[in-house]
Amino acid sequence: MTHLESRLQRGRELLEEGDFFRILTHYDVDGVCSAGIVANYLLSIGKKFHVSFFRNADREELLKIANEEEYVIFTDLGSSLIGDLKGKVLILDHHKPPGDSEEVVHINPHLFGYDGAIEATATTMAYLIADDKKYAPFFLAGLLGDKQYIPGTGPIGLNREIIEKLGISVDFDFPFYGSVSDALFYSVEPFFPGISGKRDNIEEILEKLGIEPTKNISDLKEEEKVKLGSYLSLNLIKNSKIPEAGKFIVDLDFKVNGLSVRYLTELLDSACRTDNQGVALAYILGESNAFEKMEVMRRDYRGEVINEMYSMLENIVEEEHVQYFYSKSSYLASTIATIGTLYLLDPKKVTLAMHMDSQTTISARIHRSMMHAVDLGKIMNKVAGELGGHGGGHSVAAGATIPRGTEEEFIKRVNQEVAKVLFS
Fold this sequence. Notes:
The protein has 15 helices and 15 strands. By secondary structure, it is an alpha/beta fold. It folds into 3 domains: about 160 residues, inorganic pyrophosphatase (n-terminal core); about 130 residues, no CATH class; about 110 residues, Diaminopimelate Epimerase, Chain A, domain 1 (Roll). The radius of gyration is 21 Å and the shape is globular. The relative contact order is 0.09. The model has no long low-confidence stretch (mean pLDDT about 95).
């Protein structure tokens, strides 16, 4: 931690030095929470800032902005640009970097012995910079948003060290909220085929189980929780290809000042995935009305996810080492790939969600059981580059952009690359 602490101190000194900062961040929960913590910290020391969100950040665009501004902060991106950045730049990222540089302040867990795919997020780095317990809910939301925990165990690595220092306990319970009927209707993590989004089926099931649909799920008696849990476990065992699927009805959560961080994460994620990052950032900066706005977004967004999940299950194509589907929505593709990989699809295959526009974008995921054998970021970078596109990311979650018309060749080559790794 000594080397890390010296970098953090350099980062704080840079923030003290400037008056106005351009914050460039990723569009998802980790991106918004890391930027939000940094923005709050800047406000606390009397600084001004402007935040820009990026979904598919173009390298040249990011470098152009960095060269035009005097003080720049990258959160949840920037490490891939390390060789081209100089000056008064702070990078708080967790994607595996191609190297390091003393030309800027580069803070990335991979540089300090932690795996940024599973042990620390960009929000983790931002939290360490701010070093204030009041930002704990957003640090925790960042790690939940990036799925940085082991089911049934909890966070590991640097995330775990911070949680233990904060004295926050890990809770395990149903990952649903609201009335029992609404909780099941809007459930996507886990996704229950034939239940999620199916109001008539839910009413029939609850009548059979003797559970009042309007009762808040947190108020269920123990025997009711057991009955409902058993039914939902059987649904996943029947519909999932993942051996431990029956255990997914219980997941971890954190309670901070009475607030469920998992629910907060869902709200922030819904805002981010629908390009309402400004609303999510406003909440992190203290605008309480933003919470109600995100609750509406959550219901609408989850309805879209549910429809897309059923479409994916009906249209997924299986190859030897790859399973893939085409998504109508670019912003839903990664979500569907993640949910499918975590809860339902073959855990021994790479999942590819493909969206065709002027170019074809791909979201790639693998199950955690494959993470020590397959590095998706490397494979996406190699195959996309060979086809005239670009790609990269984490070992377990990555993406690519390729020219239209090269989709079949892309799938073929990814299949071959995975086979090479598995049987080398």
